[in-house]
ABC transporter substrate-binding protein
Amino acid sequence: MKKFIKCFATLALAVSLNAATLSPILAQTSVTDSRGEEVTVDSTLQRVITLGYPEFDTLRALGLEDLVVAAPVYSTPDYIGSYNDDVIDTANLHEPNLEVLAGANSDLIIATGRSSSLIPELEHIAPVFQFSTDNANYWESFVAINTELAKLFDKEEEATAIIEEIDQEAQAVRDINSTLDEQTLVLLLNEGEMAVYGADSRFGLIYQVLGFQPIEDFVIEDQRHGQSVSFEGILDLNPDRIFVIDRTQAIGSDNSANTDLVENALVKETKAYQNDQIHFLSSQLWYVSGSGLESTHLQIQEIANLMQP
């Protein structure tokens, strides 16, 4: 009897060791997101939800778009084009459909600033990585957030190479601006109203990274929809260059109220207007996206083309 028990125990141990060999513990990867929070996931991510556009364009730049199972399909920016046919629509950028997200059986949810308030609820569905930049430290946060996201997919080397290319593109614009003594204003049009943005704003790429000079001795409050400005205010600032972004157009609304704003008589008196230096930027690219690897490249490319003689 003792001999039987000993043989059975030996057999059980052998089976246990064999099972351990056949079923290894899954490796995990930990990174830091834009909240400064550590995010830990299984190293073999297969199903990813993107709640905004820049994180999707980063995944696409890294060749990972086929992992995306749910995304904001409605009103997709032109540069994104279309998603794969089986991608589920998460709906609103600010308030994604939580039932849809729960049913997507995802390994990871990538949230943006627009959906950040929902992160506590999202974390009940899957690990959440917040993807957003720091307005006051645009380039540093851009590099960090894209590199950290890439690490989750073992694509850090590829992301670093793309970032180096983007930096070279930005340097070419900075070199041009270093020879100029011109002040630039970023102007947002929104349903017939106007607002301006400064260097430490969501459009910090223009000032901090590309080297455009902000308006001297004029402090612009960093607000999500900018600091309100009048036609008289624009003339008082009298910038050498104005970059215009039409928010109404970007979100797919009727922008007829914005059509003639820059044709106002007072705006026509500015140096920017008189020197043909008022430039309308691609509204969707700049307002609903940006900070992804692909979108940032396209933004810099658009500005660089405008700077050509």
About this structure: Residues 202 and 307 are 21 Å apart (CA to CA). The chain has twelve helices and twelve strands. The two ends are 96 Å apart (CA to CA).
